[in-house]
Every structure is written in structure tokens, then in C-alpha cells.
Design goal:
Elements: H1 2-23, H2 41-44, H3 49-58, H4 60-63, H5 78-92, H6 103-119, H7 125-130, H8 138-155
Helix pairs in contact: 6-8
């Protein structure tokens, strides 16, 4: 009985190794566009250099058309997982392309930015675990919150 059990475990282990090897051949497309084009956030609303630096450091990898990929992106399933995070981030807000946003939608996104950083939900803890430099301190959070108030006033949307 124990021999059968060991053979079954061995087959499962070999199957998992084969699957792991095969998924290495799956290469999702990379997010290698232009981060700061004419439709970028910084061309849509006035963005001071201090805010631009914070966004480029802590947000643009997942919320722009350009991602700086770490070496481990080449190992699947990690690469597939990262691609999923980038797609989700760009779907929520893509700082590189705000051209299709109405004043109302842009205003709501600014409010969302303030809320997400205040709650500590952005940048994602899974991102700041590896990218410690991207973690926002209380001063940076206050800067972003204050900037969103100014940006929303500049957008001029009235509910």
C-alpha cells in the first residue's frame, strides 16, 4: 500500500514539474509603451514635481503605459500574476491616458486617489513588500491628498 502511495506522489510531483516547465513558454505582452505622453496626468492637470516624483516612484509601474519590470517577471506564474496586477491597475486608472475621461470621471478618480492612499491600499502592500522605496510616508500621503483637492478644483466638475 505504501509503495502505491509513493508512486502516486512521484507522478504528481513529476506532473507539477512538467506543468511548471511548460508555463515558462507563456510570455504575456509587456507594458512597454510611453508613460508620459500628451494624454498623461501631468498634461491634464497641474502636477507639481513633488507629486510627479511620488507617482512615478509609487504608482506608474501599475497605473501607466510603462512598467519597469523586475528580473523575476521572467519566471511564471509570477510573470502572469504581475501582468494581471498591471492590467487591473491600468483599468482602474491609467495615468498615461486620461484623454477619454470626462470631467466627472476625472474628478471621481482624483477623489479615489486620495482615498486609496489615505487608507493605505495604494500602493499595494504586495508591491511595497518588494519595492520598499515605493511605500508612502505620512508626509507624502498628505501631499497627495492636498494635491487632489487642488486638482479637483482645477478640473472644475460640480455635482
Amino acid at each position: 500500500m505504501q509503495l502505491r502511495y509513493l508512486k502516486m506522489i512521484r507522478k504528481i510531483f513529476i506532473g507539477l514539474i512538467i506543468i511548471f516547465i511548460l508555463i515558462q513558454f507563456i510570455r504575456p505582452p509587456r507594458n512597454n509603451g510611453i508613460a508620459e505622453g500628451p494624454t498623461d496626468l501631468m498634461h491634464t492637470v497641474h502636477t507639481p514635481d513633488s507629486i510627479a516624483h511620488i507617482f512615478k516612484t509609487s504608482c506608474y509601474d501599475c497605473h501607466s503605459n510603462r512598467t519597469e519590470y523586475p528580473w523575476y517577471v521572467n519566471i511564471n506564474p509570477v510573470g502572469l500574476w504581475l501582468r494581471s496586477h498591471i492590467n487591473d491597475g491600468k483599468q482602474a486608472i491609467n495615468f498615461s491616458d486620461l484623454s477619454g475621461f470626462s470631467k466627472k470621471k476625472l474628478d471621481h478618480r482624483m477623489a479615489d486617489i486620495a482615498e486609496e492612499v489615505e487608507k493605505g491600499d495604494m500602493p499595494l502592500p504586495t508591491y511595497t513588500f518588494i519595492h520598499r522605496y515605493a511605500k508612502l510616508d505620512s508626509g507624502q500621503i498628505k501631499l497627495i491628498k492636498d494635491w487632489t483637492v487642488t486638482a479637483r478644483a482645477e478640473i472644475g466638475y460640480k455635482e
